[in-house]
Design a protein that fits this description.
Layout: H1 3-16, H2 27-35, H3 42-62, E1 68-72, H4 76-90, E2 96-100, H5 102-108, H6 124-157, H7 163-170, E3 179-182, H8 190-203, E4 207-211, E5 227-228, H9 231-247, E6 254-259, E7 266-267, H10 279-284, E8 289-291, E9 305-307, E10 310-314, E11 322-323, H11 329-342, E12 347-350, H12 357-368, E13 376-379, H13 386-400, H14 422-432, H15 434-441, E14 444-449, H16 452-468, H17 474-488, H18 495-498, H19 501-512
Parallel strand pairs: 1-2, 1-14, 2-3, 3-4, 4-6, 5-7, 6-12, 12-13, 13-14
Antiparallel strand pairs: 7-11, 8-10, 9-10
């Protein structure tokens, strides 16, 4: 017996104990409402999706082609439409997640208006977006199940076989999928990180991504001026997130440790080493220093360290920040990653300056010398110029192979004049296979794009506005939007139903019976799309 059928039975038994006072309650209707609201709390979602991520990680360890993917979504409706599309086109939501980007929260969800990605937005807006995303995903479930229940009723009324419809209801696959939630650098000290992590988990997040930048000097990973914290400070925040998961009963919650060390040349403070070779000593070994041979070389305010038996002065900038040695980013990334995995993190995130499988793979192989099953979450970032990057990569490969490149100018490969050339076509094929290649060769378990729906919203709005306010008028909308929605089978072409009008009608009928005033009658203009 399915859960739905079992609920019908249990509610009928409960009604029978109420001495007739519940006779207006239809057990089947109540069971349908329970089926349409499977997840009662955010913690229910976090526990359910954490188990999914853990299984997916095991699947990837066994077969690197089983990598996972997500797109960043800045509104519940965007996340809902994304998962409806995935399920429609792929037939399943398996291996598909949502990503919550701190960049997009700052740019699109702050009460201050658009802000840079510097942890300036309200921390509460992160948890609010998680809750909103899951509200819309749960509504997608309720809407689809409502359609199935109506099909079931119609088939019964017409005396048709209902077996297939009943199986679709009993085996329904939810749109609720894991969210990887960006907590930036924790929005404060480790206690602030713990408190915010709890809010994210209570909203439904099973996976929290935290980075090793200084919280009050946070920068976007693809901008300059990044400042990292010592290992001990970062590990304290990883611990804070783990305690939050454990306190709330999400024992298999997932932590992604992000390092910005590849592009960060600064640190805010010098940690205190307790014994030779400890984490603080390893961190300080990367500092840019000069040997001090006489106290007369020092001026008021200078800092000095004893390293390897010598007195050294670290390079300190006018803003008080300390500088790392040039060309140490690779080694600092590897140490960051190994240390994080050895101290409670589950997955890694390495911010790189370009999408290059070889570069990423070199770092992962160095990490896997210590942690054999190390896995990455990787940002397929819109901050990269993918076209130019990959055309230049192919140019360089061909150059090393001695191919004739006389028709190409490496610095101008973005030009449209190259679009149909062999070089451009090979670059596009490398872009197409980038995720599979990087999953196989560079340990990437999860591929995400942080800001795709930010860019698609801008592009589609530009196209519509250009025609609508130009010489196309209504044809710009009809041809460019509505006709495509109809022919591509987008559910939101019936926007009233997508917003819940059909579910509302169902509920009115449950509550009021034949006297219910419903919206889906003959005069509902949404009926025009039934014959489309």
């Amino acid at each position: 017996m399915s859960q739905y059928q079992n609920d019908v039975k249990q509610i009928a038994e409960l009604r029978s104990t109420k001495a007739g006072t519940w006779n207006a309650i239809n057990p089947d209707s109540a069971a349908r409402m329970k089926a349409q609201n499977r997840f009662k709390t955010g913690l229910d979602i976090a526990k359910y999706t954490a188990a999914i991520m853990r299984k997916d990680m095991q699947d990837y360890d066994a077969d690197s082609s089983q990598y996972t993917q997500s797109l960043g979504c800045w509104h519940g409706f965007i996340g809902q439409q994304k998962m409806l599309s995935v399920k429609k086109h792929q037939g399943t939501t398996d291996k598909s997640y949502l990503y919550l980007s701190g960049w997009m929260v700052a740019a699109l969800r702050s009460e201050f208006g658009p802000l840079p990605d510097q942890s300036m937005h309200e921390k509460t807006s992160v948890a609010a977006l998680i809750e909103e995303l899951y509200t819309f995903l749960r509504q997608a479930d309720a809407r689809e199940l409502g359609d199935l229940f109506r099909q079931l009723d119609d088939a019964k009324q017409q005396g048709q076989d209902t077996t297939a419809i009943q199986q679709a209801i009993d085996n329904y696959e939810t749109h609720v999928v894991p969210i990887i939630a960006d907590i930036d650098a924790g929005f404060g000290n480790e206690e602030a990180t713990y408190l915010l992590a709890k809010k994210l988990i209570e909203a439904g997040a099973c996976c929290i991504q935290i980075e090793n930048q200084v919280s009050d000097a946070k920068q976007c990973g693809h901008q300059d001026g990044k400042v990292t914290v010592p290992h001990e400070d970062f590990l304290a925040k990883i611990n804070a997130v783990r305690y939050a998961f454990l306190e709330l009963g999400v024992d298999d919650g997932v932590i992604v440790a992000r390092t910005d060390s590849l592009g960060a040349g600064l640190t805010q403070k010098i940690p205190v080493s307790q014994k030779p070779g400890d984490l603080a000593a390893q961190y300080n070994a990367f500092l840019d220093t000069s040997e001090v041979k006489s106290i007369d070389e020092l001026v008021d305010g200078d800092s000095v360290l004893k390293q390897n038996g010598k007195l050294v002065k670290p390079v300190r900038l006018p803003n008080g920040l300390y500088k790392f040695q040039d060309n140490t980013g690779f080694d600092r990334v590897v140490l960051d990653c190994i240390t994080s995995l050895q101290n409670g993190a589950d997955l890694l995130w390495i911010e790189t300056e370009k999408p290059h499988v070889g570069q990423i793979g070199d770092m992962v192989r160095a990490i896997r010398n210590e942690i054999p099953n190390a896995k990455l979450v990787y940002n397929n970032s819109p901050s990269f110029n993918w076209t130019l990057n990959f055309r230049q990569q192919i140019f360089d490969i061909w150059s090393e192979a001695g191919k004739d490149l006389s028709q190409y100018n490496r610095d101008e490969l973005m030009s449209v004049k190259y679009d149909d050339t062999d070089l451009a076509l090979e670059a596009d094929e490398k872009i197409r296979t980038f995720q599979a290649d990087a999953a196989r060769e560079a340990g990437i378990f999860h591929h995400l794009i942080t800001l795709p729906t930010y860019h698609t919203a801008a592009l589609s709005t530009d196209n519509l506005a250009k025609g609508y306010f130009g010489d196309q008028g209504m044809l710009a909308y009809v041809k460019g939007v509505q006709r495509k929605e109809i022919r591509q089978g987008l559910a939101c072409v019936k926007h009233q139903a997508m917003a819940g009008s059909n579910m509302g009608d169902d509920h009115k009928e449950y509550f009021s019976g034949e006297q219910a005033l419903k919206a889906s009658g003959e005069d509902n203009t949404m009926n025009q799309f039934d014959a489309a």
